[in-house]
Amino acid sequence: MSPDCVTPGSVRSAAEVNEHIRALWLRAGGSLSAQERAEYELLVVEWAAAIREQVVKAA
Question: Tell me: the pLDDT tens digits for 7-21?
C-alpha cells in the first residue's frame, strides 16, 4: 500500500476517500488481493470517519 493512500488522522473528505476506493477497485479489476483488501478496509474506516465528521458539522 502506498503511503499516500491512507494516512492515520487524515482530514480528507468522504468524497476524496471514495475516489481512492473506486480507484482501488478499478486497479484490482474487481477482485482484491489480501494486500488490497487491507488497504480497502482502511479506506472504508477513513471514509466512515469523514462521513461522521460531515454529519457532526451539519448538525
Answer: 455 579 999 999 999
Encoded amino acid at 48, one letter: A
- The full length of the chain comes to 59
User: Region 22-40: what's the mean pLDDT?
Assistant: 97
Q: What does the alpha-carbon distance between residue 38 and residue 25 come to, in Å, rounded to a whole number? A: 13
DSSP state of 29: T
**How far is 29 from 26, CA to CA, in rounded Å?**
5
Name the grid cell of 44.
472504508
Which helix or strand (DSSP H or E) is residue 45 part of? helix 34-58
CA-to-CA distance for 8 and 32, rounded, in angstroms?
22
